[in-house]
Amino acid sequence: MCFPRICRRNEPQNQPKYGDLMRRIHVIAAVIKNSDGQILIAKRPDSAHQGGLWEFPGGKLEPNESRFAALRRELQEELGIEAIQARPLIDIRHDYPDKSIRLDVWLVDRFSGTAHGAEGQPIRWVQSAELNQFEFPAANRPIVTAAQLPERYLITPDCDEQTLFRGLDQVRGKGITLIQLRQTQLQPKAYDALAQRVTQRYGDDFKWLLKGDVQPRVTDCGWHLNSAQLRRLWQQRAGGQKAQKPFSGLLAASCHNAEELSMAIALSVDFVTLSPVQSTASHPDAKPLGWEQAEQLITEVNLPVYLLGGLQPSHSARAFDIGAQGVAGINAFWPSDN
Ligand SMILES: Nc1nc2c([nH]c(=O)n2[C@@H]2O[C@H](COP(=O)(O)OP(=O)(O)OP(=O)(O)O)[C@@H](O)[C@H]2O)c(=O)[nH]1
Ligand SMILES: [Mg+2]
């Protein structure tokens, strides 16, 4: 049997972080993945809080209960399964008008038993892309995104096209599914033409995010904003405080501090990179955040966060422990012999 790592966050964890008047209720919830990659969702009873909506199974932590013990108990009670392997996926804080919750969501990828609605609730196994067709409580938007995103985000190094294709051929089918096409040496026209060729060749293998001053002209690609573009769009947004997403596809932003993270939230981006966590050869003058500050910043945002800067795949476990979606990088994932 595999036990999860102990998380570094200090217990007890029901302490409100934002000075709430209402006590923040600590809820453990599970994104359960089966061997076909499907995810389990359940319908909340009509009479419950947020009744009639779909949810990720789980419930409130009991006094003095560890997070993993609570996860196991809830999955046993609600679905009749035993969680065998789990790790933190995303940790969010949400204020409903009538209650404040901390939704501490874990990814369960090994379990025993056959899940059934042990409390009479309807359950369904769905593909991650289908999650958007179901209605969840308002707090769940970042959870759905986190469930759909992988734990690694590859950023391509500047290189010629032949080298790029050779590297992509090598990482294909090896756990990389999300890629930012970064080619800083190319002018916009040449970059767009390359993006067309790359997506034609690898469209089904990877989800692409493109860089640029304007939203991608290549269909089905996401848009990754650098911090200057993030600021510009934030300044241009109409309607003051109201969140307005400036692009309907997958939208990401590069953030380096609390201010940029708050702009990303205001623009309703889907995920962010936070950098540099450690010193990195690609940005030698940037002062690293360090792990503690990265953790503090992640705790304040309800978004999937990829940590970036001087990291390796082996940093994933530490990234999960501080609430990150995973690790992003150029050198971390690009084949070294390419
Ligand atoms: N389990 C779960 N709760 C969620 C989700 N999203 C969300 O806002 N919540 C809220 O988190 C709280 C969790 O409550 P729960 O009703 O599952 O708690 P529980 O299993 O311990 O049941 P209980 O109400 O009988 O004590 C509710 O206020 C619920 O509205 C979700 O995806 N899963
Ligand atoms: Mg429950």
Automatic annotation (TrEMBL):
It is an enzyme of class 3 (hydrolase). Pfam families: NUDIX_4, TMP-TENI. Residues 22-150 form the Nudix hydrolase domain. Its cofactor is Mg(2+). Its EC number is 3.6.1.55. Keywords: DNA damage, DNA repair, DNA replication, Hydrolase, Magnesium, Metal-binding, Mutator protein. One of its GO terms (molecular function) is hydrolase activity. It comes from the Bacteria. It catalyses: 8-oxo-GTP + H2O = 8-oxo-GMP + diphosphate + H(+); 8-oxo-dGTP + H2O = 8-oxo-dGMP + diphosphate + H(+). The keyword Nucleotide-binding does not apply. The keyword Transmembrane helix does not apply. SUPFAM superfamilies: Nudix, Thiamin phosphate synthase. Belongs to the Nudix hydrolase family. This is 8-oxo-dGTP diphosphatase. It comes from Halopseudomonas sabulinigri.
